[in-house]
Amino acid sequence: MSAGPKIPPDLAATIVDPLAFGAWQPLLDAYATLRREAPIALAEIPGYRPFWVVTRHADILKISKDNTTFLNNPATVVLAPIMAEMFVSHLMNGSPHLVKSLVQMDAPEHPKYRRLTQDWFMPANLKTIETNIRTIAKASVDKMLAMGNECDFARDVASMYPLHVVMELLGVPESDEPLMLKLTQELFGGQDPDLNRTRAVQMSAEDAAKIMAQTVADFNAYFEAMAQDRRTNPRQDLATIIATGMIDGAPIPDYESAGYYTIVATAGHDTTSASTAGAMWALAQDPDQFAKVKADRTLLPGLIEEAIRWTTPVQHFMRTVATDTEVGGIAMKAGDWLMLCYISGNYDESVFPEPERFDATRSPNRHIAFGSGAHQCLGLHLARLEMKILFEELLDRLDSVELAGEPKRSQSTFVGGPKTLPLRFKAA
Ligand code: HEM
Questions:
Q1: CA neighbours closer than 13 Å in the CB half-sphere of residue 421
Q2: Bridge pairing between strands 325-327 and 330-332
Q3: Distance from the alpha carbon of residue 207 to the mean position of ligand 1, in angstroms
Q4: What is the pLDDT of residue 198?
Q5: What angle, 0 to 180 degrees and rounded to 10, lies between the N-to-C axes of helices 254-267 and 205-232?
Q6: Which residue blocks in 24-70 are alpha helix, DSSP H?
Q7: Whose CA is nearest to atom 21 of ligand 1?
Q8: Distance between Cα 174 and ligand 1 center (Å)
Q9: To 10 degrees, what angle do helices 300-311 and 270-285 make?
Q10: Which residues fall within 8 angstroms of residue 142, CB to CB, at 6 or more apart?
């Protein structure tokens, strides 16, 4: 590990503390201090391998775009304690990953796998499923209005709608959606006692990794059966494209196809749920912005980008340095591990004036919530489309919205966002 500026222990502890993610403001304050005083610096935290923490927008972008110097495959791409890394390596015969999906791959393997579904996720193909998505959006709004004039928007609407969309696209039957939701929340919410598999408030790193491995095994079993089914009974769905995909002239192996399904199924809904709830949170706090967007739908794309920036559902990814290099005047050595802090990049005051303010008219809005470079989010057009359609339907049918209680964010360092959003509303 290279030597370099070090992050004071209290700040280092904050940026890996799930409670700080739940509380939010302490996290934003810690990132602001780091951007100002130590934009790339080492975190030495008991129980973790040391890693570089990258907090400025420009540096995160530069590293994300250089997929030769900064790799995904050599180490875990989501921050994990040493004990968890050791447990996974032992379980997986030396591999640092429980799941092998696009985010765990580098070139030359990564582009081959990404190419299998790339066209499917492009706007031209998404046009063909727009009507389907609108039907699901309308049903979600019907359900919300049928609840009277109050709901928990995060739980009742925002978490169910993208789940239903992605499962339908993938070809998972509706009856299995609760299982998919549960497994995804276990995967992303492992640190949150309301979401993890055992509802434990505290767990050792090894126990957390063991429980995570059980969740992944459940996903694998489910998706391996689905791949088998699509190979024998091909359909017009994304699951069939993955199951029948060929890599270097051979069928995609079971482990990789299960990983592919898992990333689409999981990345495809909790993230979009979080930014959908984030958009509603902002509107419920600001009746003027609600009225403006309701009256002028050309503001909708801006509202959606701002909600994605403001919420930043994917909160970090890790990279490993492939060859000695330098970023922002800091020398890094091959093998160094680093953390891309997307929330911090999206609250960087040198790019976003008044970053904590939600402004649906913010322009330009160069947020990095979808990452950048070879791994840039494959589902970004789908996420935007889903949110646009839902808010078109919501704005047509709602006259006003306001908070009916204090929203809560999930206590998670990886994927997060509002987990409860008590809302009072008046139908149009
Ligand atoms: C607001 C919603 C979403 C956000 C904020 C988000 C964010 C991200 C981020 C930050 C990455 C990693 C980028 C990087 O390393 O540079 C990523 C990758 C990915 N996302 Fe999303 N995502 C969202 C929605 C979706 C949806 C709806 C899908 C699919 C149904 C999806 C599928 C994927 C996949 C497959 C990858 C891996 C791409 C690769 O490694 O080549 N995401 N996403």
A1: 28
A2: antiparallel
A3: 28
A4: 64
A5: 110
A6: 25-37, 57-65
A7: 377
A8: 23
A9: 110
A10: none
φ, ψ for residue 319, nearest 5 deg: -135, 160
CB of 115 closer than 6 A to ligand 1? no
**Amino acid symbol at 44:** E
Give the Å distance between the CA of 394 and the centre of ligand 1.
25
Question: What tokens were used for 228?
Answer: 């088998």
Q: How many angstroms does the Cα of residue 291 sit away from the middle of ligand 1? A: 31
Stronger pLDDT, 255 or 327, i.e. the higher one: 327
pTM of the model: 0.95
With a 6 A CB cut-off, is 166 part of the ligand 1 pocket? yes
Residue 313 Cα: closest atom of ligand 1: 5
198 three-class SS:
coil
Tokens of 159: 């978490």
| Closest by CA position to 309, among listed 255, 384, 232, 200 | 384
For residue 108, say if its preceding peptide bond is cis, omega within 30 degrees of 0.
yes
What is the reported pLDDT for 195? 63
Average pLDDT over residues 121-125: 96
Task: Give the residue, by CA position, lying nearest to ligand 1 atom 3.
Answer: 271
Percent of the chain with pLDDT over 90: 81
Mutation probe of ligand 1 site: the residue of 303, 370, 388, 389 with most atoms within 8 A of C-beta: 370
Q: Which atom of ligand 1 is nearest to the CA of 372?
A: 16
- Confidence tier at 63 by pLDDT (50, 70, 90): very high
Output the CA 196–ligand 1 centroid distance in Å.
22
Atom of ligand 1 nearest to the CA of 368: 10
Which pLDDT does position 207 carry in this prediction?
Answer: 78
What pLDDT sits at residue 5? 93
Radius of gyration of the chain (CA): 21
351 in Cβ contact with 366 (< 8 Å) = yes
Taking 80 as the threshold, does the pLDDT of residue 244 lie above it?
yes
pLDDT digits (tens, 9 = 90+) for 349-400: 999 999 999 999 999 999 999 999 999 999 999 999 999 999 999 999 999 9
* Measured distance CA(329)–CA(285) in Å, rounded: 41
Q: What is the pLDDT of residues 269-314, one digit of tens each?
A: 889 999 999 999 999 999 999 999 999 999 999 999 999 999 999 9
Question: What pLDDT is stored for residue 205 in this prediction?
Answer: 73
- Whether 264 lines ligand 1, by a CB cut-off of 6 Å, is yes
Cα separation, 157 vs 149, in Å, equals: 14
Q: Express as a percent the part of the chain with pLDDT over 70.
A: 96
Q: How far is CA 133 from CA 82, 162, 167, 278, 389, in A?
A: 42, 9, 11, 20, 8
